[in-house]
Amino acid sequence: MTTTATAPLTIKDAEALVTVAQRAAETAGTTVSVTVLDAGGHLLAFRRDDRAVLISGETSTRKAYTALQLNTPTADLVDAVQPGGLFHTLPTALDRPLLFIAGGVPVHRDGRVIGAIGVGGGAPEQDHAFATAAVADLD
Questions:
Q1: Residues 23-49: pLDDT tens digits?
Q2: Which single residue of 11, 25, 56, 104 has CA 20 to 30 Å from 121?
Q3: Would you say residue 65 lies in a domain?
Q4: Phi and psi at residue 38, in whole multiples of 5°?
Q5: What is the CA angle 18-125-104, rounded to 5?
Q6: CA–CA dist 96, 126 (Å, integer)
Q7: How far, in Å, are 25, 82, 111 from residue 85 at the CA level?
Q8: What is the value of pTM for the model shown?
Q9: What is the pLDDT of residues 67-105, one digit of tens each?
Q10: Which domain holds residue 21?
């Protein structure tokens, strides 16, 4: 039986993700911050538009981290943390920077999670669209 290693998310990949997400935001007239993390949760790339609200840097990072840890777009987790939801107590049960607002998307290669992107600064639906566009554009 042979196994092949999945190529990790590279700096080049991370920079491409940031560029595509920021261009999508710019086209929509929105200023954002974009964070890209590798599979271990380490920062690979970060960029904040000059006019983006300062907190967008933190929210983009937390969205990426949440998407990575749960291997799910944060847009798909919003209902899970509402009262009665599967993860209702998760945001307060862990001492981790989780954020259940749309805009975080895991990045997969060969069916494996290799990192995540988070976008913050626009409306949650916009942030999700910008992150999704970036992931879809990745080779």
A1: 999 999 999 999 999 999 999 999 999
A2: 11
A3: yes
A4: -85, 180
A5: 45
A6: 25
A7: 31, 5, 27
A8: 0.91
A9: 999 999 999 988 887 887 777 666 666 667 788 899 999
A10: 11-137
